[in-house]
Amino acid sequence: MTSPRNLYSQLPATDRLLRDASFSALLNEFGHTRVVNTLRDMLDGAREHIRTQETLPPWNDDWARQAKQILDAEKRSALLPVYNLTGTVLHTNLGRALQAEVAIEAVSQVMRSPVTLEYDLDGAARGHRDRALADLLCELTGAEDACIVNNNAAAVLLMLAACAYGGEVVVSRGELVEIGGAFRIPDVMRQAGCTLVEVGTTNRTHLKDYRQAAGENTALLMKVHTSNYQIAGFTKAVSESELAGLGQELAIPVVSDLGSGSLVDLSQWGLPPEPMPRQLIDAGVSLVSFSGDKLLGGPQAGIIVGKKELIARLQSHPLKRALRADKMTLAALEATLRLYQHPETLVERLPTLRLLTRKTAEIDQLAQRLLPAMQRRFGERFEVRVQACLSQIGSGSLPVDRLPSAALTFTPKDGRGATLASLTEDLRRLPKPVVGRISEGRLWLDLRCLEEETGFMEMFTP
Ligand SMILES: *Cc1c(COP(=O)(O)O)cnc(C)c1O
User: Which residues does residue 410 pair with via DSSP β-bridges, in sequence order?
Assistant: First the structure.
C-alpha cells in the first residue's frame, strides 16, 4: 500500500498545471487570478482527501476538467432564466411581469447613454424626474399629477408618511391585509408614524363606522384593496366613491392602496374585471397607489396618482428621495405606458396581457404537440398526459378567478413521492430550468406561459 506521504508527493504543482495546454482555455476565459485561486482550493481539498481517505482524489487524473466545472458553476447567475410553467402568470418569486420589447429597448438605451433624467434641454425648469411619466399617467388615469417610487409598498409608506404622520388613519377591519414579504398594513402605519384606527368588523363595515371614527386627529380615510383574498357571504364594504363623498364632507383626504389595478378594462377580453385607477380618481379619491409589475405589465415600481397638492407633498418629502425609481425603471415604465396609448395593439405587445388572454384551445394544441416527445423521454417512469387545468393571474391580482388552461402532467407509475421529487430536480437542472407545480400526486406543467416552443422542445429531444 502506498503511504500517505507518497500520495502527497503525487499531487501536481500549480505552476506545472498552469503551463499545461488544457489550462490555456480556462486562463483565457476566467483569468489568471481566479484560475490560480481555484487550483489552490482544489489542492487544499486534495490534501484533505488524502488525509481522511488515504487515496488520491478522483480529479487527480483531470485537474482542468474539475477546475472548469467549479468555475462554470460559480459563473451561473443568481438570476437564471427559467420556464415559468407554474400556471401563475405574475409569479412574484420568478420576477412578476415580463417586459414588453419596447421597454427592453428603452432600458438598454438609457443604460448605454447619459439621459435627460433631471435635465431640461429647453431650459424649462420642470422639477423632478417623474415629470414626463406623470403627464402620461395623468392622461391614462384622469389624475392631476403622479409620483413614482420603487414599488407599491414604498408608495403606501410614502403616502402615509407624507399625509398622515402624527395623525390617525381610519381603515376597515376587513382590509388590514398582509401582502406577503412582511408587508402588513398595521406595520406600515407604525413605520409611517401614524395611528391606525380600525373600524367595522371583519365581514361588515358601514359608512357610519368611518363617520363615527373620524375626529380632530384624523389625517386620512383609507381603502385597501383586498387583492389576495375575498370575504364572501354576509358582507358589506364601503365603496371608494361613498368614502370619497364622506371625505369631501369632512375635508379629510381619502387614499386607496389599489395593489394591482389595471389601466384598461380587462373584461373586454373576457377576463374578470379589476378596479381601474381612473374609476377611483373619477369617484373623487385623493390618492391611488398601484404596482408597476402586476397587471400593468411593466417594471417593479410604485405609482401614485391623484390631487396636485398632495402629490406635491409626496414629491418634496425626504422619503421620496430614498424611495425614488432609477432611470432604468422609469425608461421601462414610460415605454410600457406608451403602449396603453395604443390599445389596439396592447394584447399583442404587452406580454402580461398576451399571456392572460391566450386561448385555451391554443394552449391545448401546444400541449398536444409536445406530448409525444415528453412520453418518449419520461414515459418509462411516468404516465404523461395532457390535462385541463386552471392558471392564476398571481401577485394578488384577481385572487379568486382562474383561467382555463392546459398542462402536461406526469404521474409516477410507482406512485412514489420520491420519483416525483427526482423529476422536479431533473427539470431544475436543465440548461434553462423548468418550474412546474405539484398537486394531486403529479407534476403539472401549465403551458400558458410557454411561448418559446422550439427552445423548450430542444431540451427534451436527443
Ligand atoms: C401587491 C400589493 C402591495 C405591494 O406592492 P409591491 O409593488 O409588491 O410592493 C401593496 N398593497 C396591495 C393591496 C397589493 O396588492
Answer: 384, 443
Whether residue 227 contacts residue 221, with contact meaning beta carbons closer than 8 Å, is answered with no
In this structure, what are the phi and psi dihedrals at residue 440, rounded to the nearest 5 degrees?
55, 35
Q: Which three cell numbers stand for residue 18?
A: 498552469
Q: Which of 66-75, 106-115, 173-182 has the lowest mean pLDDT?
A: 173-182
**Which amino acid, one-letter code, is at 86?**
T
C-beta separation of 351 from 395 below 8 A: no
Residue 233 burial by CB count (10 A; 0-12/13-18/19+): exposed, middle or buried? Answer: exposed
Q: Tell me, what's the pLDDT at 102? A: 98
291 lines ligand 1 (CB under 6 A): yes
- In short, whether 152's Cβ falls inside 6 Å of ligand 1 is yes
At 347-361, the pLDDT tens digits run 999 999 999 999 999
Name every residue whose Cβ is closer than 8 Å to that of residue 231 and which is 6 or more positions away in sequence: 174, 202, 203
**What separation in Å is there between the alpha carbon of 12 and the centre of ligand 1?**
57
Q: State which of 226, 288, 291 you would mutate to test the pocket of ligand 1, scoring each by most atoms of that ligand within 8 A of its C-beta.
A: 291
Q: Are 263 and 340 in contact (CB under 8 A)?
A: yes
- Residue 303, classified by CB atoms within 10 Å of its CB into exposed (0-12), middle (13-18) or buried (19+), is buried
Residue 84 β-bridge partners: 435
Ligand 1: which residue has its CA nearest to atom 2?
259
Q: Using a 6 Å cutoff on CB, does residue 223 contact ligand 1?
A: no
Separation of 149 CA from ligand 1 center, angstroms? 13
Q: List Cβ neighbours of 274 (8 Å cut-off, separation of 6 or more).
A: 260, 261, 262, 266, 295, 397, 398
Closest approach atom of ligand 1 to CA 228: 15
The pLDDT score that the predictor gives to residue 25 is 92
What share of residues in the chain are helix, strand, coil (percent, to 5)? 50, 15, 35
Query: Residue 258 Cα, ligand 1 centroid: separation in angstroms?
Result: 8
Per-residue H/E/C for 427-462: HHCCCCCEECEEECCEEEEEHHHCCCHHHHHHCCCC
Phi-psi region of 445 (alpha: psi -120 to 50; beta: other; left: phi over 0): beta
153 lines ligand 1 (CB under 6 A): yes
Nearest CA to ligand 1 atom 14: 259
Q: 151 CB under 6 A from ligand 1?
A: yes
